[in-house]
Amino acid sequence: MIREIVQLGDKVLRETCAPVEKFDEELASLLDDMKETLKKAQGAGLAAPQVGVPVRAVVVDVEEGFFEFVNPVFVWQKGEQTGPEGCLSVRGKEGVVTRPSKVKIVYKDRNGNRCSLVAHDFFARAVCHELDHLDGIIYIDKAARVYDEED
Question: Which residues bind Fe cation (predicted)?
Answer without folding.
Answer: 87, 129, 133
